[in-house]
Write a structure and sequence with these properties.
Blueprint: H1 2-19, H2 29-34, H3 43-47, H4 49-84, H5 125-137, E1 140-145, H6 151-162, E2 167-172, H7 178-182, E3 187-188, E4 193-194, E5 200-205, H8 214-224, E6 231-238, E7 256-257, H9 259-262, H10 266-269
Parallel strand pairs: 1-6, 1-7, 2-5, 5-6
Antiparallel strand pairs: 3-4
Helix pairs in contact: 1-4
Length: 271
């Protein structure tokens, strides 16, 4: 609406500018009345037509300035709202079947390694679409690739896309056991119980640090997953040749994105 008003003012200003180039006696009756001559062509009023134009032009320019200020404020307000809702850019992915989050549930900002969504970044649209498809088809998805290949960034992009439809819980596995990490979220691996199941996705980053807890992984995947049908997991793990623990055998059935999936396309590489 504000933009439409600005356009109308601009058109009026352009019209006034054009009148400067036209002799008064060639003005339309409408213009003569509009700018204070009442259609009369007496010499006194004719000599003042430039003054009428100037006054009208000043008023219109002030109006345009005020409207543009209003428009800037509206745009800034919209931007602040988008940023507060964890906005990132801009493509719409269809996330079919995701349950609506309760209003009180908040998506945390991912403050670990990865991209800053408030700054220019690769969208990784194809990779993100693959992840969304896998997420829809399985309660567990594995991201397995070398360090620095973009796993945490992909989790960040996924959360930005999903934030309006599903609760996203980011967990770094660097410092605690899997049992300690999941217990605050109602998943008790020691007692094999689940409370508070709801539509949510738990994103376990650097999960390879917990691969030595084979019993805990077995409990989570085989014994507890059926008790929390609304909870899904995205497991991000670094694939390396170092002397670390092997990937749990239970992961073999998970859909996964591997090293080749994280490679940049030719188009992305030039962006």
């Amino acid at each position: 609406e504000t933009e439409a008003e600005i356009k109308e003012v601009e058109e009026s200003l352009a019209h006034i500018e054009s009148l400067y180039e036209i002799p008064f006696d060639l003005w339309s009756t409408k213009d003569k009345k509009r700018f204070g001559t009442d259609g009369k062509e007496d010499q006194q009023k004719i000599s003042k037509h430039a003054e009428y134009l100037k006054e009208e032009k000043i008023l219109l320019m002030k109006k345009e300035s005020n409207l543009r200020e209003d428009l800037r404020e509206l745009k800034n307000k919209k931007k602040r709202k988008e940023e507060s809702e964890y906005s990132g850019k801009n493509e719409s992915l269809s996330l079919v079947g995701w349950a609506r989050r309760e209003p009180r549930q908040q998506v945390p900002s991912l403050k670990f390694d990865g991209i800053n969504l408030q700054k220019p970044h690769l969208q990784r649209s194809g990779l993100l679409e693959k992840l969304c498809g896998m997420y829809e088809s399985s309660p567990f998805v594995l991201l397995s690739s070398p360090a620095g290949s973009g796993k945490t960034s992909l989790l960040n992009l996924f959360a930005a896309k999903a934030r309006m439809d599903i609760e996203c819980i980011y967990i770094s596995c660097l410092k605690k056991t899997l049992s300690d990490l999941l217990k605050p979220h109602g998943i008790d691996l020691e007692n094999e119980t689940v409370t508070g199941d709801r539509p949510r996705v738990i994103m376990l980053d650097d999960a390879h640090k917990t691969y030595g807890e084979k019993n805990n992984w077995t409990t989570l995947i085989k014994n507890l997953s059926h008790l929390m049908p609304q909870t899904k997991f995205i497991i991000a793990a670094t694939h390396s040749l170092e002397g670390c623990y092997d990937t749990p055998a239970e992961f073999s059935s998970f859909p996964r994105l591997g090293r080749s999936d994280f490679l940049l396309s030719d188009e992305e590489a030039t962006q």
